[in-house]
Amino acid sequence: MRYGLLILALLPGMVHAWPWSRDMMNQPSIKPQEGKMPAAPKRSVPVDGLHTKVKDRLHAYKLANPVTADKKSIARGKQFYTIFCATCHGDKGKGDGPVGKKFPVPPMDLTNNFIQNEAFDNWIFSNITFGGRLMPSYRNDLLPKERWDVVNYIKHGLVKPVKSSEQKGANNGVR
Fold first, then answer.
1. pLDDT tens-digit profile of 95-135?
2. Is residue 13 assigned to a domain?
3. Which comes out higher in pLDDT, residue 89 or 174?
4. Domain harbouring 143, CATH code
């Protein structure tokens, strides 16, 4: 009996609350797909979607490195490497970064002979783009040119000191 009286006492408040519970939905605003799109705010940065035109590793293996391995590219690559790669691969590329130490399979040592002397640039580019065993894909985080800069840093700046006369990467590697 007490609960019945409580419900009756609260009923007018609940009935009164009902109309305003939909006010957020019925406010004056542009609904999706309705009206004209407002102009972008000043100083906004346009985003034009995914920049990777290659759809899989096989297509990536056919690419040649379009970015010259000069000092500027290697310096940009080092910046991106420090942000995206060093946490797992380590500052010196040995696979001993703070996050990489926690994995059951250590990240690849980027200073080894295979990477430095045998791996084609497009193979490294495809691993950055599509990821690996535990490595995430960076195709949405780095533009293609930025990924090629990282490739240039790995191949020409990680182990070897950057020479002022170094203009082109020796191993553009189109298979």
1. 999 999 999 989 999 999 999 999 999 999 999 999 988 89
2. no
3. 89
4. 1.10.760.10
The answer to whether residue 64 scores a pLDDT higher than 80 is yes
Q: How many domains does the chain have?
A: 1
Domain holding 126, by residue range, is 67-156
Query: Residue 27 falls within a domain, yes or no?
Result: no
Q: What is the pLDDT of residues 25-58, one digit of tens each?
A: 666 666 667 777 778 788 887 776 556 678 888 8
Percent of the chain with pLDDT over 90: 49
Burial class of residue 9, CB neighbours in 10 A (0-12, 13-18, 19+): exposed
Average pLDDT of span 151-173: 69
